[in-house]
C-alpha cells in the first residue's frame, strides 16, 4: 500500500494536471468502488469543476466547485492515470506504464473532462475506492476514522507525540508508529527506517522509551518522510509516481527489506522478525 510520501507525490502530480478541469461525465463498472448509485454520481459531478487536490493520511481528497468531495484510496493495487492529448501521468500501482491500453479490464472508474482528457481509476484486486461525499459527510467520515495528526504539520510536535505515547505505553514502537489513530501515513517501510534512525528496536514497548528516544523518533518521522517525498517515494514491486517512474527513495533505505545484509553503520547483519503480523527489519547491534 502506498504510504504518505507516495500518496503525497501522486497528489502533487494530479494537482498540476486536473485542478480547474470541468467534469463532463463519470462512469464506473464496479459498484463496490463507489458509495452512491452511479446516476447520483453523474448528477452531482457533471458540469462541476475540480478546485483542489489534497491528501489526508493515505487518501486523496478532490474538492469540487459545488462543495462536494471525492475521496480516493488506492489501497494495495490501485492506480490513477491522467491522460490528455499531450501527456500521460501514472501514479500508484504499476498496472499500466503507458496510456495506450486504457480503459482496460482493471479500469473501474473514469472521469471524462470537458476538454476530452480523462482520469482513470484502475485496480487489480478491487480493494480501492472512489467515494463521493458532501463536505459535512466527509467531516463525519474522518471523525469516525479517528485519524491522528499529520506528521508534517505544525501540530505534530515532539510534545504531541509524547502525549499520544503516554496513552499507549504497552504498544510496540513499530505498531504504534503504523497505527493511523496515533499518527497518519507511516506504514511498514518508513516505520522500519524511523526505528533505525532513532536506534530503537521496533519491538520495544512504547512505555520503555526515554525522552531523548521519543525526540529522535519524532525527528526521524519528519526527516525520513520529507526525504522520501523529495525522492518521490519508494518502489519495490509496484509503486510508480505520476511520471510513471519508480520512487527513488529505495536507494536511501537503511534496513527495510535488507535482512541478511550488512548494516551500513556497524557492518553487522540486519535481521527480521514479525511484529503484529508485519515483517520488520532492524539491526540488533545498533538498535536497543
How would you describe this structure to a colleague?
The protein folds into 2 domains: 4-145, Alpha-Beta Barrel (N-terminal domain of MutM-like DNA repair proteins), CATH 3.20.190; 158-282, Helicase, Ruva Protein, domain 3 (Orthogonal Bundle), CATH 1.10.8.50. Helix content is 27%, strand content 24%. The model is unreliable at 235-241 (pLDDT under 50). The longest helix is centred in the C-terminal third of the chain and has 20 residues, at 211-230. α1 runs parallel beside α7 (211-230) and α6 crosses α7. The protein has helices at 4-18, 38-45, 135-145, 158-166, 173-178, 188-197, 211-230; strands at residues 23-28, 50-56, 59-64, 68-73, 78-83, 88-93, 107-113, 118-123, 129-134, 239-240, 271-275, 278-282. The chain has 7 helices and 12 strands. It is an alpha+beta fold and 288 residues long. The strands form 3 sheets. A 6-stranded antiparallel β-sheet has the order 1-7-8-5-6-10.
Q: How is this structure best summarized?
A:
With 288 residues, this protein is an alpha+beta fold. The chain is built from seven helices and twelve strands.
Amino acid at each position: 500500500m502506498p504510504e504518505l510520501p507516495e500518496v503525497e507525490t501522486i497528489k502533487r502530480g494530479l494537482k498540476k494536471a486536473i485542478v480547474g478541469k470541468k467534469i463532463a461525465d463519470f462512469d464506473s463498472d464496479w459498484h463496490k468502488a463507489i458509495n452512491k448509485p452511479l446516476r447520483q454520481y453523474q448528477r452531482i459531478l457533471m458540469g462541476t469543476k475540480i478546485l483542489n487536490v489534497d491528501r489526508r493520511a493515505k487518501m486523496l481528497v478532490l474538492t469540487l466547485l459545488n462543495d462536494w468531495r471525492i475521496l480516493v484510496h488506492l489501497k494495495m493495487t490501485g492506480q490513477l492515470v491522467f491522460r490528455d492529448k499531450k501527456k500521460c501521468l501514472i501514479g500508484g500501482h504499476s498496472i499500466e506504464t503507458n496510456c495506450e491500453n486504457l480503459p482496460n479490464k482493471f479500469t473501474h472508474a473514469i472521469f471524462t473532462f470537458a476538454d476530452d482528457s480523462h482520469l482513470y481509476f484502475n485496480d487489480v484486486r478491487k480493494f480501492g475506492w472512489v467515494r463521493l461525499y458532501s463536505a459535512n459527510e466527509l467531516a463525519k467520515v474522518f471523525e469516525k476514522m479517528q485519524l491522528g495528526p499529520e506528521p508534517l504539520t505544525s501540530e505534530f510536535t515532539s510534545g504531541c507525540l509524547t502525549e499520544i505515547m503516554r496513552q499507549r505505553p504497552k504498544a510496540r514502537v513499530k505498531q504504534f508508529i503504523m497505527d493511523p489513530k496515533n499518527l497518519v501515513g507511516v506504514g511498514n517501510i518508513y516505520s522500519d527506517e524511523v526505528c533505525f534512525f532513532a536506534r530503537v528496536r521496533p519491538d520495544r514497548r512504547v512505555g520503555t522509551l526515554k525522552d531523548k528516544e521519543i525526540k529522535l523518533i519524532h525527528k526521524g518521522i519528519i526527516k525520513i518522510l520529507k526525504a522520501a517525498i523529495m525522492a518521490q517515494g519508494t518502489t519495490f514491486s509496484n509503486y510508480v509516481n505520476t511520471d510513471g517512474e519508480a520512487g527513488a527513495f529505495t536507494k536511501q533505505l537503511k534496513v527495510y527489506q535488507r535482512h541478511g545484509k550488512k548494516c551500513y553503520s556497524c557492518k553487522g547483519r540486519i535481521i527480521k522478525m514479525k511484529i503484529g503480523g508485519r515483517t520488520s527489519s532492524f539491526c540488533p547491534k545498533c538498535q536497543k
